[in-house]
Amino acid sequence: MIETLISSKTRVKLLLKFFLNSTTKSYLRNLEAEFGESTNAIRLELNKLEKAGMLQTEFEGNKKLFKANTTHPLYKDINNIVFKYIGLDWIIEYVVSKLGNVEKIYLTGSFAKGTDSPQIDIALIGNVNEQFLKELCEKLEKKISRKIGYKILTKMTNEEPSLLLWSNKIKEKNIPK
């Protein structure tokens, strides 16, 4: 879907990397290893996004770190597009509306690190009927064309990267509408 609008696969990867989780920071060599692409192709796209004001930079020693510019006027729109591209909006809608005892939903795994993957991993905090959740995920997988992996937890640990997507306690939704 997004590939028809943005022809550069490298740019799509960079948008996922930086606009999915606004706290993500990375430098050129790290992106080269992660994407398996040449530094030149990545550098060209980073420069375009930086020139447009969509990415900010900072230096850590001699490394130039890139991160999303959350104050850019299009940040929320791009974030929204990225979330919809992945299918996170559907996950929240299905899970929250069908499973009433969910306290929080976290994005974990590759996407929490800003890396595209055929599987979306989520962690649910609350009292959840696992069989019903499994049935919901199977239906949803067909709708978003991605596998969904899930964990049901009593609390979230800091052992792996995670991004809070939804919480009923603070009525916070990180999924844009």
What does this structure look like?
- The chain has helices spanning 2-5, 9-19, 28-35, 39-51, 75-86, 88-98, 109-112, 130-144; strands at residues 25-27, 55-60, 63-68, 102-108, 119-126, 147-153, 163-167, 172-173.
- Strand 7 (163-167) and strand 8 (172-173) form a beta hairpin.
- The protein is of the alpha+beta class and 177 residues long.
- Helix 6 (88-98) packs antiparallel against helix 8.
- It folds into 2 domains: 2-75, Winged helix-like DNA-binding domain superfamily/Winged helix DNA-binding domain (Arc Repressor Mutant, subunit A), CATH 1.10.10.10; 87-173, Beta Polymerase, domain 2 (2-Layer Sandwich).
- The strands form 2 sheets. Strands 6-5-4-7-8 form a 5-stranded mixed sheet. It has a 3-stranded antiparallel sheet with strand order 1-3-2.
- The model has no long low-confidence stretch (mean pLDDT 87).
Précis, in short:
The chain is α+β, with helices and mostly antiparallel strands. It has 2 domains: 2-75, Arc Repressor Mutant, subunit A (Orthogonal Bundle); 87-173, Beta Polymerase, domain 2.
Question: How would the blueprint of this fold be written?
Answer:
Layout: H1 2-5, H2 9-19, E1 25-27, H3 28-35, H4 39-51, E2 55-60, E3 63-68, H5 75-86, H6 88-98, E4 102-108, H7 109-112, E5 119-126, H8 130-144, E6 147-153, E7 163-167, E8 172-173
Parallel strand pairs: 5-6
Antiparallel strand pairs: 1-3, 2-3, 4-5, 4-7, 7-8
Helix pairs in contact: 6-8
